[in-house]
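It is worth pausing here to work through a concrete case rather than discussing structure prediction in the abstract. The textbook approach is simple: state the sequence, then state the predicted structure, then interpret. We follow exactly that order.
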Amino acid sequence: MSAFRKIVWAVDVLEEPSLQERAAEALRVMARTRRIEVEAVYLPILAHLRLPALDFSGPWLEEYRLQTETSLTGILDRHGLGGMGRATMLERNFASNLDAVRALAEYARAEGASLILASTHGRSGLGRLFLGSFTETLLQYSEFPVMTVGPHARGPLEFGSVLFPTDFGREARSVYRQAVGLCSELKARLLLYHALHPSLQQFMQSESYVLTGTWMPAAMPAAVEADDGRPQAERRARRWTSWARARGVDTRYVLEEGVGSVADAILANARKRHAGLIVIGAESGPVATLLLGSVTRHVVRHAECPIIVMRPFKRAVQLDSAEKAA
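Step two, the predicted structure:
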């Protein structure tokens, strides 16, 4: 299966040029190993523009659209992407991030896109609460894989090594299959990373967030399988590694114990092992959406390389005929 041939780039024409350059660089790197088509899309969200409600119709709209698409085309040309696609402004009055995300997903589906690219400002705390985050809303609700490039990303970007954090859960198998296919196309090495789950005592002593009367660990993914210990993790890691190698992808694994924050451990391993790209599964369900200590969110905000957040296929992938016995 060919990965990410058509990419919708959600461009904020008002954002810092450095963020646009990093996002464009990620696209240029992806284009080195295969032909891709890029569509730069702008969504006018009134809350971001700090403008009152406007009537998006008539001559005013046409003039605004022409100016915006001219700016988008200039961004594509300036970053060496002019020959790969086109520029579009979605002609709607978006009152919220969620409204814009739904429209973008609908547009991407209609255009046959397979990936959405968006920058993130890496805001946290009150800054994110008051300003909102289009990218984080996109990560929560998009049915498409989403690539993010944040302000901490260091250049020059290279995708020769990909880090894949996993809990070896059922949904992770599907995401892993997609990651292996991507590495095959990028001609990249794959590093499978697993943090062994802490003991119950460590769990109770960790920082937690109370939601609907339930204790949730801030340092762990919201959904996680029961810890079967290192021997079981070793067996699964060897099977998953062998499965990827059989498909021509140079794959290794790391199992790490004594991890405090899983998110910080992922970031530290990406830095230590010179990963140029992190592929991580989207945390799903209402708890994962509301949990403030989400692993994926923390990694997206602070990563020093681009990240692709993938949704699992509806049907889990059987990596090995013996996987059910694992």
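Step three, interpretation. The chain has two domains: 6-149, 161-325. Confidence is low (pLDDT under 50) at residues 124-132, 199-227, 285-293, 320-326.
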